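Technical note accompanying the year-one report. For the benefit of new consortium partners, we illustrate the data format agreed upon in the data management plan: each record pairs a sequence with a structure-token string. No post-processing was applied to the example shown here.
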Amino acid sequence: MAILAAGLTNIGQKRKSNQDSIYLNCEQHLFVVADGMGGHQGGDIASQMAVKAIPEYLIPKLMARPSSEDLVNLLKNSVLKANEAILQKSRQDSKLQGMGTTVVALLFSDSTLYIANVGDSRAYLLHKGEIYQLSKDHSLIQEKINLGIYTRQQAQADKMKNVLSRTVGFDDSVDVDIFNFKVHKGDLFFICSDGLHGKVSDHDMMHILNRHINPSQQQITQKQLNDAANELVAQANANGGQDNISVIIAYAQ
């Protein structure tokens, strides 16, 4: 199955630097968004290291066409390698102590999609015009939602909504969520940092994507994906753009 993809990262309206990083590899069907955090330049470095370490570990091993079970372990291990590299770097430089990053990665293999997730960057599916969140946030506010303390709408007012319960590069070990889904021709998957999903509702993201990409079309173009990514980022900026904004859209042809 061929994958057509577009990606964009943007500094936003309020930040002095862009601590998000993205990685796109349509040939190997691998896509990563990382949202860094921690000190002066720490977030930039952590996210850049993540999007470098994951493909460096993973891509050579994909050449051997591993089994589905091996793919799960390889994807998880690639995030663990990133965790190890970032942690080691922070221990070598006191100015970088405490840095970390979210990671959400898509890996397509035949008709299956594998997702790795740590933090609150998200993976979504647009299927037959409807939007579905595929990943689960690792955040304090999500834990409160899970416990029934808040609804998702009520949680938007919580001052602690950006506190993460899991990141890459902060602790010696990290639990990596791995999900897998059946891929159908015409499915559109996208991953994004909280600079997008925190400023643009799922409903509005769905409408933007549907405006540019109609699954009933015989052929989806690169321009359509680029335009959709640009409008998603523009809408996040129009809604305040308080954070860096990143998105990768991957379309199954």
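Partners are asked to follow this layout when depositing records. Residues 3-252 form a domain with the Phosphatase 2c; domain 1 fold (CATH 3.60.40.10).
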